[in-house]
Amino acid sequence: MTAEPDGPEDRLRRFATIWSRAVFPATSTSLTRVEFEERLLPLARRLSEALRARHFDVDAGKEVGAALVDAHCTDPEALSHALHCVDAYLVLYCGEDGPQEDLRARSSRLQHAMAAGYAQALRERTLAEQEAIAQAALNAQGAVAQALHESEARFRAVFEGAAIGIAISDLEGNILQVNGALLRMFGGSEHTVRERNARDWTHPDDAPQVCRLYEELVRGEREHYHTEKAFYRPDGTVLWTNLTVSLLRDADGHPRFQLALMEDTTERRLLNLRLRYEATHDALTGLPNRTLFFERLEKALSAGDGQRFGLCYLDLDGFKTINDSLGHAAGDRLLVEVADRLQSCATAPGEMVARLGGDEFVALTTGPETQSEVDELADRIMNALVTPVRIDGRELLVRGSIGIVEGPAGERGPAEVLRSADITMYRAKSAGGNRYEVADAEADARAITRHGLTTALPAALDRSEFFIEYQPLVHLGDGTVRGAEALVRWLHPQHGVLGPDRFIPLAERTGLIVPLGRWVLEQSVRQAREWQERHRDKLGAGPLRINVNLSPCQLTHPGLVQDTVDILECAGLEPDALCLEVTESALIGADDEVLKPLRRLAEMGVDIALDDFGTGYSNLANLRRLPVSVLKLDRSFTRGMQQFPADPVDLRIVEGIVSLAHSLDLTVTVEGVETGAQAEQLRLLGCDTAQGWYYARPGPPERLHDLALVDATG
Predict the structure, then answer these.
(1) Cα–Cα distances in Å, from 628 out to 38, 556, 563, 580, 623?
(2) Are strands 578-583 and 607-613 parallel, antiparallel or unpaired?
């Protein structure tokens, strides 16, 4: 394999070499092939310069075509070989730095200009030879006649042997001559073709400017024009061509004839149409694909005033289960059946259905009344999915979730509309599926914010954007501060301070809760150690305990126990100064494997608190097997105690829970204490500790230390 030429001159010479090899066998010349190549090199340079010129001049092609005649390239195959060579290699070797589509267009125009210049020069050469014969008639009548005959024979050979269709007509459009290639393209006899006037060769797909260009040419206002044009054959089929029409003038410069050069592009056009179809339609279902859908959506969104659009974004519920259980072949057959049903739902003008990929489909409707039409379209889709699909003897129930976006054209772009539909569809799926929801700007904004927070979480931990506030735990008997619960906050650059309810669920879904939880534990334990040192040095009081929440993901993480041990040892804090809080819902139905890390921590002296007790509907008998030492009553049990008199039902429930907990040697902590009446009632019921705004809101660690000092100095 040889390397490609390096510099522009090398590539130009390579092009000239290929050109000479293609044309030399069909050239009547005494030159050697190497000498003939040197003859073609300036012509190749002229084409290259014209191809890359800032201001394109098609006359370069006419000059090169005429130069080929001067080089005696008049054999029937010479022009055809030259045009094929220029078409295949000019852009490849001389236009690699420019936009390929523009260079190809220029190359095509140069080829047609070459053919026009070639025909014009050949004709002029013939006329010149005829003139020379006339001047020398008295001295060499026989020689002139022979030369004229040979000239006409050469012209006829080129005319008849050309691979492209050639026709000559007068300025009125009467066809005077046609070659064999043109007759083969039209599939008729010469008489059939010649009896038609060139002005009558119109087609409904003609570009609007074709008629104008033709009239300008026959009036002598332009020398040639090039266009893509369709013709009807005698049998009614369509012939597509690249057409170049040139004006032929007489010796005095007056317009005399038209020369038409036609290249048959029918097969290439059909291939392009097929490729376009395959590029814009789904191979499995035959529906329009994402590419074509976005074209249609963009067109609908850019429509004029008064136009609206409606979009239904469908995702099948449970499709992955079908794929996993029955196989992808069955899943594909299901998708084909769904596509057929959806197609039958969108048959009105302005409606279309497309498959975006996987089990995601979209239905689009346009027009001035889409507010009601899109809802009706969604209803038709849901009804179409009701009937089970039978595959391999199984009846499969098909359900789907649809997100609907509707609105006026011109306000949003395709990406924004599809994002809103996608968000709305997932809202329908989160609500149980088999339903549709209508897009809501506020819901979209919340979803976008959640997504933004999710993607920003990893970097936020690296940038130290999280901080911890501490809420005191107060002993109900003597009112002293016994410790605090660590509550993580996120100082977001755009949204300000975010509470854990805004980002903890996101961290759990992404797995970031494990490193975040370890950081919270590490910071809280270090803070507890600092409190102990400061408290003991000043007052000699007992240690302040720290409560840290554990998420379900942390509970099942294999490094939980070792991480806790390492953090305690590094900070120098005793295990009994730490309490890990686990929600009741995380321990419902937990097996021994899940409870094993908690048991190991409890054996080390770490307290385990059952948080939000009373919200998980657990069996109270299960408390005996859980390694917990603290019950934290959910605030829902004490809300009724804010009023006076307190709700007697709530009093009896709390009294029963406290009695049960104490019988199991468990201490009881109450959340959400907001009034003194609540605190007093809970003390009378036997609760041990409490936390809530009545005592203090969550705050910086210094405030907790100050509260502890006040209690100690009472």
Answers:
(1) 97, 17, 20, 10, 8
(2) parallel
Q: What is the spatial distance between Cα 622 and Cα 616, in angstroms, rounded to a whole number? A: 12
Query: Residue 33 — very low, low, confident or very high, per pLDDT cuts 50/70/90?
Result: confident
User: What's the CA gap between 241 and 258, in Å, rounded?
Assistant: 17
DSSP 8-state class, residue 176: E
Question: Given this structure, which CATH class describes domain 164-270?
Answer: alpha beta
Q: What CA–CA distances, in Å, run from 470 to 150, 543, 697, 702, 704?
A: 108, 16, 8, 9, 7
DSSP states of 349-385 as a string?
A: TTEEEEEEETTEEEEEEEETTHHHHHHHHHHHHHHHT
Backbone φ and ψ of 99, nearest 5° = -65, 120
Rounded-to-10 torsion of CA 442, 448, 452, 454 = 100
Contact (Cβ atoms closer than 8 angstroms) between residue 377 and residue 329: no
- Label the pairing between strands 400-408 and 394-396: unpaired
Do the bridges between strand 630-633 and strand 667-670 make them parallel or antiparallel, or are there none, so unpaired? parallel
Query: Would you say residue 478 has pLDDT above 90?
Result: no
* Helix ranges, 606-700 (H): 648-663, 676-684
The one-letter amino acid at 700: P
What architecture does CATH give domain 280-439?
A: 2-Layer Sandwich (3.30)
Is pTM beyond 0.70? Reply is no
d(CA 185, CA 188): 8
Question: N- to C-terminal Cα distance for the chain?
Answer: 95
Measured distance CA(350)–CA(366) in Å, rounded: 5
SS3 content of the chain, % helix, strand, coil (to 5): 55, 20, 25
On the 0-12 / 13-18 / 19+ scale of CB atoms within 10 A, 131 is exposed
Task: Give the tens place of pLDDT for each residue, 115-127.
Answer: 888 888 878 777 7
Using alpha carbons only, give the angle 139, 140, 145 rounded to the nearest 5 degrees: 140
- If 0-12 CB within 10 Å is exposed, 13-18 middle and 19+ buried, where does residue 330 land? middle
Rounded to an integer, what distance in angstroms lies between the CA atom of residue 694 and that of residue 473?
Answer: 11
Give the pLDDT score at 144: 43
Q: What is the pLDDT of residue 508?
A: 85
Both structure tokens of 394? 């199984």
d(CA 157, CA 186): 21
Residues near 619 by Cβ (< 8 Å), separated by ≥ 6? Answer: none
Cβ(314)–Cβ(429) below 8 Å? no
Report helix, strand or coil for 394: strand
Instruction: For residue 24, count other CB atoms closer than 10 A to its CB.
Output: 20
The position carrying tokens 């201490």 is 667
466-703 sits in which CATH class? alpha beta
Taking 60 as the threshold, does the pLDDT of residue 710 lie above it? no
- Parse the chain into domains and list their residue ranges: 8-132, 164-270, 280-439, 466-703
Q: 76: burial class by Cβ within 10 Å (0-12, 13-18, 19+)?
A: middle
Mode of pairing for the β-strands spanning 435-438 and 466-475: unpaired
pLDDT digit string, tens, across residues 63-84: 888 888 888 887 768 888 888 8
pLDDT recorded at residue 615: 65
* Alpha-carbon gap, residue 670 to 638, rounded angstroms: 8
Can you give the pLDDT at residue 678?
86
